[in-house]
Structures are given as C-alpha cells and as structure tokens.
Amino acid sequence: MLTAFSGGDIRSAEAPLLDAGQGDALMQRAAHGLFGVALGLLREAGRGTYGATAVVLAGSGNNGADALYAGERLLRRGVGATAILTGDRVHAAALEAFTQAGGTSVRLADAPDIAALAAHAASADVLLDGILGTGASGGLRGPSADFVRAFDAAAGPRAARSTLVVACDLPSGIGVDTGRVDGPVLAADATVTFGAAKPGLLIGDGAVAAGELNVVDIGLDLSGFPPAARTLEGSDAAALLRLPGTHDQKYSRGVLGVAAGSARYPGAAALAVGAALATGVGMVRYLGPEAVAALVHQRNPEVVASTGPIAEAQSQAWLVGPGAVDDDDQRLRAVDAMASGLPVVVDAGALAAVPARVGPQVVLTPHAGELRELLAARGVDTERSEIEADPAHFARQAADITGATVLLKGYTSVVAAPSGALFVQADATPWLSTAGSGDTLSGIIGALAATLAEDDGAAGRVGVAPADLWAAIAAAGALIHGRAGRRAARSGPVVVSDLPGPIRAVVADLVEERRLAASP
Ligand SMILES: NC(=O)C1=CN([C@@H]2O[C@H](COP(=O)(O)OP(=O)(O)OC[C@H]3O[C@@H](n4cnc5c(N)ncnc54)[C@H](O)[C@@H]3O)[C@@H](O)[C@H]2O)[C@@H](O)CC1
Ligand SMILES: [K+]
C-alpha cells in the first residue's frame, strides 16, 4: 500500500529532527535521492554523465536547496550544470556548494530574456525542478510561471521533449494536498518525494504531472499521523480477494444480484454481468426485463434471471443502476436494495434514487457529471470542471453528506469513505474511456462485494479499519479494472465487451501473487 501524508503532517514529523539539529542531514538525504533518480534516468536514456548538461531550478526555500545539492552531486560526476534562481532569496550554503563544484547560476529576475533562458533549459539533458515544495501556497506566479510556460513552448509536450524533468518533492505548481493545478505546472518525467508521498502526487492533475513516483526514505517517523490518502498495490488487492475453499459451494462463495439494463440500454446489463463473472463470484442473479435477460443469457447462460423484486432473490450483495433508465421496476429494485442493509454498488441510473442517508456498504460510482447532479440534489451547487480539478474534496463531501462510500471515476479514481479515509487509484489507461467501461467497473466491484460481504477477515487482510472495507473493495475494483484495460490495450483499442478475458487474466495474476506471498 502506498500511503500519502499531508504536507502539514510531513512538516510536523520533520520538526523534532530539525530541533535536534538534523536539518542538513535530512536535506542531504533528500538531495542524494533526487540525484540518484536523475542519474538513473540519464543512464536509462543512454546518456552518460560526462558531457551531459543539467539545469537546476532553485526556488527560495528548502526545495531549492535540495535541488542545488543534487546539482552539486551531478557536477561532481562530470555533468555541466547551471542553476536558475527563481526566488528573491536562495539557500546560501546550497548555492555555495553548487558553485564550488563548478556550477554557474543566474537569477531569473535579472534575466533579460526569459524565452532564451527557457530555450537553454530545453536543450539540457536533465532539468531538476526545485522551485516549490511543501511550502508552496497557491500555484506558480510571476517570473516562475512565465519561465515554465516558456519552457513548455520551447521543449514541447512531455511525451515528445528530449529534456528529462525530475521534480524535487513535487512538481512545482500542484496543490500539495489536492493535486489541483490552477496555473502552469512543470510536468515531470519522474518525481522524487521525501519522507512519504503527498496526496497531491496521487490525485488527478497532480498525479498526471508527477510522472513516475519515487519515495525516498529520509528517516521521518510518520507512525502517529493519519494517512491522508492511500493507493492499493497489486499485493493489497491480492490479499483482499476471497479465494474459493474446498468446502465452498456457489452460495457460500457469494451471490451477486444485478438489477441493471432497461429497454433503452440493454447492453449495460450484459457488460456488468460479464465483468462480475470474470472477477469470480458464486452466482449472478439477474433481475430485469425479459428481453434484457435474453441478451445477458446469450453471452452468459449460467446467469439465473427473473423479473421479480429483490426480496425474492437472495444475494450477498447488489449491483443496481447500469443502463437502468426510464424503468420503474429497476428504480424500485434500486431503492429496495439500498434499504436492505446489504452491500450495494450504485451506478448510473440508480444514483438518483439514493436516499438521504445510507451506510458505507453502499458504494456509489459516479463520474464527475453524475456527482455534480448528486450534490446539486443535496443543495451543493458546483461545476463539473470544479469536481475534476479537486476530485478528492467533492468525493469526500458526497460521502460525508450521504454516508455512502463514493468512488469518483476519472483518470485517477478517488474513493472516499464516510470515515474520511481516502483511496486513490491510477491504474487505468485513457483507452478505457469508452462507452460501457463504467458498467464493467461496477460489475467487478459488485463481484468483490458479494464474495467479501460475509468475510470477517477481509479488512484485516488488506490492513484497513473495518469501516473502510467498502472503500478498499471499491479501490481494488478500480485496480482490477484499470489493469484489465491496460492489458486489453496492448493489442489495440479497448473493446469493453471483450474485457472479461483480461479481467480473468488480471485476477489470475493476483491469485498467483497471493500464492507466492503465502509460500515460505
Ligand atoms: N519536510 C521535510 O522533512 C524536508 C523537507 N525538505 C524540503 O523542503 C521543502 C519545503 O521547504 P520550505 O518550507 O522552505 O518550502 P518551499 O521550498 O516549498 O518554498 C517556500 C518558499 O517559497 C515561497 N512561496 C510559497 N508559495 C509560492 C508561490 N506560489 N510562488 C512563489 N513563491 C512561493 C515562500 O515565500 C517560501 O519562501 C520540501 O518540499 C522538501 O523539498 C528536505 O530538505 C528534507 C526534509
Ligand atoms: K518542486
């Protein structure tokens, strides 16, 4: 599990070490970690150190000092380095060390031509971004903002540029705790963050700007601080799965009831059911119009279908809503499922039927537009773009108001538990943004919920509080879905109806990972 702590908590954890006179030692560890990643990237790109060039962007705080000390180390390896001092102050000892090692420096405020300086930076092999770290308030401003814009114009987009950008602690310009990007930001190839990840590196636009994330241990003790966000890794999803045992039968493995699809959108039911079966479940009971059931059966004859109410279909968990629009029976099933006390995954058409208060076992899976409507119906007016800019804030707000677990879909999927716990998954590929993708995600989460509903050991296996089990299940669903999408995309654009194959393969890998973890 990757655990992020707020910028404020990281600074609090640093305080006792600073009081003990360890500030410089911390900074040297940070600089060493940054240097190591920059060196690794240079080598990976087939560029050695001798003859290579680096530009260090150094702001007025300790972030700039870290970058200058990393620059010093590059200089001692034969890299030619220039520092651009972006603030009105600079850490004197760090600049002295950089200069002593042969580095030259220029003040951005004195530069006659920012575009020329940016073009120089864009011709370097590596750029260390030490403009702003955890001390940032707001986005980049003034000459720093102008410089980053000019650099982007000169270097081109990240995928195409030749300069490797390594962010010191975080890409300058992102919200440390939110990932919010309001102005220019230097999109990094890699970010080297110190002590622990910060939430902004995992969420939304901040996660995109961070590139590959490296966490460098600098000896902070964060054990007394609450995680601000967590990301499940494969081993966590593997630990969470409930594997069938010798005494299991279809009912004990978990039955998922699915009230999805309607005359208007029959396909959503088939997609959700296919994904649920591929994730692994004892049985799927389908409730809905006969014509939709016929479509489900064409692909999955093992599904047990009926047109009755949910009270007549015993299940361990429910999935309601995919493709269920303009259908009173489906709406009633959604309402009854949410009132049953059982775990329920609530998607698309059923989101409008969520009552005032539910429990954390009700997992809502809106996209930003649906979340906007859900919040508006509860008196919170906001724009879709605002939700996309700060997804964790709005997912949390929805969880807080409704009592439900809220998975907000996006490039990074954010899961907020009503306890305040937050999970963020960045497993997906843009190839998954295609019609029907959400139906398969809800099917995966539904299957996990059905198999784990009566598994008392599940929260312990993944290391979360029992109240946050549903959020962990949703996060694991996003992980499986994202990995399946990536796997599918290896052989071309993702066709959602083909996703069950890759989902099964991803689950097979997780089962194998679990087996390896258990064997001595
Ligand atoms: N917290 C820790 O445990 C450690 C922190 N270290 C480094 O220290 C950094 C934090 O250092 P600081 O507290 O000095 O903070 P920063 O280096 O992030 O910068 C703060 C300075 O930038 C200015 N500033 C703030 N927002 C600005 C904006 N939007 N535009 C322009 N200027 C702005 C402020 O006036 C302040 O002087 C971390 O990110 C990390 O790189 C490391 O040296 C090692 C240990
Ligand atoms: K930075």
From TrEMBL:
One Gene Ontology term from the biological process aspect of the record: nicotinamide nucleotide metabolic process
Record's keyword annotation contains Amino-acid biosynthesis: no
GO molecular function, one term: ADP-dependent NAD(P)H-hydrate dehydratase activity
Catalytic activity: (6R)-NADPHX = (6S)-NADPHX; (6R)-NADHX = (6S)-NADHX; (6S)-NADPHX + ADP = AMP + phosphate + NADPH + H(+); (6S)-NADHX + ADP = AMP + phosphate + NADH + H(+)
Cofactor(s) recorded in Swiss-Prot or TrEMBL: K(+); Mg(2+)
Residues the entry annotates as binding (6S)-NADPHX: 62-66, 133-139, 169, 268, 323, 367, 439
Pfam families: Carb_kinase, YjeF_N
YjeF C-terminal domain segment(s): 233-510
Record keywords, A-Z: ATP-binding, Isomerase, Lyase, Metal-binding, Multifunctional enzyme, NAD, NADP, Nucleotide-binding, Potassium
Function of the molecule: Catalyzes the dehydration of the S-form of NAD(P)HX at the expense of ADP, which is converted to AMP. Together with NAD(P)HX epimerase, which catalyzes the epimerization of the S- and R-forms, the enzyme allows the repair of both epimers of NAD(P)HX, a damaged form of NAD(P)H that is a result of enzymatic or heat-dependent hydration.
Family: In the N-terminal section; belongs to the NnrE/AIBP family.
Protein name, entry field: Bifunctional NAD(P)H-hydrate repair enzyme
Organism: Arthrobacter pityocampae
Classification of source organism: Bacteria, Bacillati, Actinomycetota, Actinomycetes, Micrococcales
